[in-house]
Write a structure and sequence with these properties.
Oligomer: single chain
Strand content: 15-25%
CATH topology of the largest domain: Rossmann fold
Strand order of the largest sheet: 2-1-8-9-10
Number of helices: 11
Number of strands: 10
Mean pLDDT: 88
Order of helices and strands: EHEEHEHHEHHEHEHEHEHEH
Length: 271
């Protein structure tokens, strides 16, 4: 009987719950053991003034642009909150669903579709700057980007370079997670690979875990180049970067890595 490609591999997932469920399921489907130790937490305790102002004048915008599923959830949750409070018209949520919407990748797009929202644009390359090119002619278009409190500026800058009028509004906060005692035990047991799904996860995990040495030679796998750059900046030696910058792409790259390792003579377990 053929072994599954990730059989016998302990894979550390640093994505916060419950957003790690899809990734864990994909790892288990390939025979691996997925252990979740979140490196970041998503919080609603932010100043929503800019976002509330943008939502109240949503008719001004031609595009809504989302760089993460977290941004999708936070934005529409805020719309629902304002509607319930009477701060905006009851039809605002429906109006938001009719806007042209761009999403950075399949996970973000799925979060929109789960809300029955059509996605007008998904870039072929799942990085923020590629969204601008996927949106077509945006000269003079007004664009709203709901984002985290630590979001980078590349996306907004690129949209402005292409002639768009861009407003960025904080929808949620990204905070370092706290590692529970049982998670400390899991870290001590060791892993074959650790997966970083965002720059903030790589940065926060380094601080929470005691740095790269705590991984004791585990493979460091990153979802994309921005995440890999931040991981390297924090001292991690990058083992692989997903060819397709998505959850599925990362697991596929991990599977390919271990298949190639299994075919090479003399490979040790921890690589």
């Amino acid at each position: 009987m053929n072994r599954q490609p990730l059989e016998g591999k302990r894979i550390l997932v640093t994505r916060p719950l419950p957003r790690s469920e899809e990734l864990c399921a994909a790892i288990r489907a390939q025979g691996g053991e997925a252990v979740v130790v979140p490196a970041i937490g998503i919080e609603d305790d932010v100043d929503h003034e800019d976002l509330d102002r943008a939502i109240a004048s949503l008719d001004r915008y031609e595009w809504l642009v989302f760089a993460s599923a977290n941004a999708v959830g936070a934005f529409y949750a805020r719309v629902e909150t304002l509607e319930a409070r009477g701060g905006i018209g009851k039809g605002t949520g429906a109006a938001a669903a009719r806007k042209r919407v761009a999403a950075i990748g399949p996970s973000t797009a799925q979060a929109l579709r789960d809300r029955s929202i059509d996605v007008s644009s998904i870039p072929e390359e799942f990085v923020a700057a590629a969204i601008a090119e996927s949106m077509g002619d945006i000269e003079g278009a007004r664009v709203l980007i709901p984002c985290s409190d630590i979001a980078g500026k590349k996306l907004g800058q690129r949209l402005r370079e292409r002639g768009a009028i861009v407003d960025e509004a904080v929808a949620y906060a990204t905070a370092p997670a706290k590692i529970a005692p049982e998670s400390r035990v899991e870290l001590e047991r060791g892993f074959d690979a650790v997966l970083f799904m965002s720059p903030s996860a790589a940065r926060n995990f380094a601080a929470l875990s005691g740095g790269p040495s705590s991984l004791r030679g585990a493979l460091v796998a990153c979802i994309g180049p921005a995440t890999a750059e931040e991981a390297a900046r924090n001292g991690y030696r990058i083992g692989l970067v997903a060819g397709v910058h998505s959850t599925e792409g990362l697991v596929d790259s991990l599977v390919c890595h271990y298949r190639e390792a299994a075919e090479a003579p003399g490979e040790s377990r921890r690589n």
